[in-house]
Design brief:
It is built from ten helices and twelve strands. By secondary structure, the chain is α/β, with parallel strands linked by helices. The chain is elongated.
């Protein structure tokens, strides 16, 4: 018989402390199934509480590697699922992208939080495997500084040294940053060598509206940025309905959350059918099976975010990445990395 699903919506402002407060408040109302939160810092903050209370969560957008969430074995993450590929995946794409762009030497700058450190840590050996020299790694603090000039000076020195060996087209800056990278760019002098080479970003820099604040500089460096981009058979219909109602396109992490809601509701129904009641341990065991069946269309509904394959950590291990770059002060799709073939289709 049909179920009706009731949603309680809370805004955490991507603040880990607020996330924990909201989870505790929802739990107080009897909520034991949660889609969210968005950030890895939030997931890390709530992990202990949700595990102790057997609250099942599916984050649509937390990408940090499991160990950066304070988890050492899959069993400790039993109730925490993530429907987005992790940064282990993303750095694979970034290294391949850099190699195909002809990069031979680069400098990495990154924000010193768990997310930034994870990207840096995974990317370094992957650049090396592609035969790319990592000249230097420059960390800046989180929250980011108001003045980036000391970091810029080090980057300029490194890049000049790389240019003794390589051509300008073979040297890049890689930024594992959020939107503060555009503040950094605004402080780069107009005659700086850093504006004569390409910059490569990540999902934290992709499609940012901040490019409007430094248009000339971003146009020069391109800021090629990867963003998880996976669409399934039901995407077109949902996107159309969303556009009609809200006048804009859907967002990838929203699509992941939509699939997470379906999987949660279907898993709950399966557990209830089997036991005649809800059980969190049975739910944790059921979600991976239901995710597979849902991905194959066995329930008469199909994913909007593409086939969802989970690894032993209950994290997504499938999906494509779009590569966006800036041209004439606009974000333009430059290519797509296809997960199944492990290749970039350049536009």
């Amino acid at each position: 018989e049909p179920y009706r699903v009731k949603l309680f919506v809370e805004d955490t402002r991507v603040d880990p402390k607020v996330a924990l407060d909201k989870v505790q408040a929802l739990h107080g109302k009897g909520v034991t199934l949660i889609v969210g939160p968005m950030g890895s810092g939030e997931v890390k903050q709530i992990a202990e509480y949700v595990t102790a209370n057997k609250i099942v969560v599916i984050s649509p957008s937390s990408t940090a590697a499991p160990k950066l969430l304070g988890v050492t074995k899959p069993e400790e993450k039993k109730y925490i699922f993530r429907f987005v590929a992790t940064d282990v995946f993303q750095t694979e794409v970034i290294a391949k992208e850099a190699a195909e762009l002809g990069i031979k030497g680069l400098v990495i700058t990154y924000i010193g939080n768990a997310w930034g450190k994870g990207l840096r840590e995974f990317a370094e050996p992957k650049f090396a495997a592609q035969g790319i020299e990592v000249k230097d790694i420059i960390e800046y603090p989180d929250p980011p500084p108001a003045d980036f000039t000391p970091y810029i000076a080090v980057m300029e020195k490194d890049v000049n040294e790389l240019l003794e060996k390589y051509d300008k087209s073979q040297v890049a800056v890689v930024a594992f940053s959020y939107e503060e990278v555009y503040t950094m760019l605004s402080q780069v002098k107009d005659d700086s060598i850093l504006l004569e080479i390409g910059w490569i970003g990540c999902d934290g820099t992709a499609k940012s509206r901040k490019i409007a604040e430094v248009p000339e500089k971003v146009n020069k460096v391109g800021m090629y940025s990867t963003l998880f981009d996976s669409k399934g058979p039901s995407f077109a219909k949902l996107n159309e309905a969303y556009r009609e109602r809200f006048g804009r396109e859907t967002y990838q992490y929203g699509l992941n959350a939509y699939d997470a809601e379906w999987v949660m509701a279907l898993s709950f129904a399966e557990v209830h059918k089997k036991l005649g009641r809800y059980d969190p341990d049975e739910m944790a065991k059921t979600i991976p099976e239901v995710t597979e069946k849902y991905s194959r269309g066995e329930y008469g509904v199909t994913p909007v975010s593409g086939y969802i394959k989970l690894d032993e950590w209950n994290d997504r291990a499938s999906g494509d990445y779009a590569i966006w770059g800036v041209e004439n002060s606009e974000w333009v799709l430059k290519g797509v990395w296809k997960y199944e073939e492990n290749k970039i289709e350049w536009k």
